[in-house]
Amino acid sequence: MRTDIYQSPLSERYASKEMQYIFSPDMKFRTWRRLWIALAETEKELGLSQNGKPVITQEQIDELKAHAEDINYDVAKAREKEVRHDVMSHVYAYGQQCPKASGIIHLGATSCYVGDNTDIIVMTEGLKLVKKKLLNVMKELADFADKYKNQPTLAFTHFQPAQPTTVGKRACLWLQEFFLDLEDLQYVLDSMKLLGSKGTTGTQASFLELFDGDQETIDKIDPMIAAKMGFKECYPVSGQTYSRKVDTRVANVLAGIAASAHKMSNDIRLLQHLKEVEEPFEKSQIGSSAMAYKRNPMRSERIASLARYVMVDALNPAITSATQWFERTLDDSANKRLSIPEGFLAVDGILDLCLNVVDGLVVYPKVIEKRLLSELPFMATENIMMDAVKNGGNRQELHERIRELSMEAGKRVKVEGKENNLLELIAADPAFNLTMEELERTMDPVKYVGRSCVQVDKFLSEVINPLLEANKEVLGMTAEINV
User: Fold this and answer.
1) Rounded to an integer, what is the distance from CA 108 to the centroid of its chain?
2) 399 assigned to active site
């Protein structure tokens, strides 16, 4: 590793090697060459000829294929210093390796033929990897939800104690947000199309010239190129580029995943503060340089940190899409080189962290039970009042008495810092005619979690498990966290 120049932390610390390869020069320029081969093959197969002789021969295509992988970067780099044009530099470099085919490389195409089609291909591969990792995170969350579906816990609204839920039901809230993200991702993935080869302003004028105005033959070019590159179709119309709104749609999917991960990580951080749930903590991990006892939720914090970056990063493609002039401007290029790869690399790191955290979540039932029981008397007052009415009490009088006793118990907890004694106060009040034993029977937390367990079972069995079964071939991933 070089230490005298800036290194992106996305590559050095967060993103996987697999995602880094997708956005690597090797992937980019090998795809350029595959596209040039696809174009040449298509033109040959469509009978491109001059004076009755084929313009492109099989020998030329074989030569192109022989050098599809071994990019001569040094030649391309030297050439770009002279001509200041990356595509023409690589056309030149490819031609140096393929002298017989040099004259037909890039025939009829403009720079966006390789640039934009490659961007679509790379983003599609990136989305496929994101989908794979997202499914694995969902599998871990589903297992966690199923394991803890019966574990009552204090729920919160406004981070104030509210009617109990279960640990598993809460995990389903996180899981559902990722499920919504997966739906969005799949829609965008299914709708990805190539630019095809449409020329400098999208009119395919160069192909009218090459094929002597044969409209029927020209209509076959884009579908044939798409098929060779593994796509169903190309966008039907374009300027020189595919619509930059495609980048916006992709970035919004990434931002949605980041937002879901951020929400989950925030909840975990708050639960770790409450000592109810903790992210994994290695035996030799240091939580603080000063406070040796600390167990900071550093991975959940990193998820939140990277997620904020991705959510803001999604503005870049949106603004770029909105400010494109007519058929083409070049103020998108430098921005795309940053915003798209870094959005993918950051989400890749986020999902690896999510997989690691969820896989190793530690639950502390005793702490959860203690906090729940400390608040449960307040939440059980309606049941207590009903039991007291059955024993002959007056509902309206009991309601007022419970309000008064609740305020007294609340003052004891908040002002005096003592335990909640609401049950003792009710047991001592003859208006309720209930013994302490009878009151304690109302304190079973399971009575207050509603349909939490049933909801978990239905959500997993009807929504999540069929999805996971349909994608079982990609499950089983583990995440390697570098720091």
Assistant:
1) 38
2) no
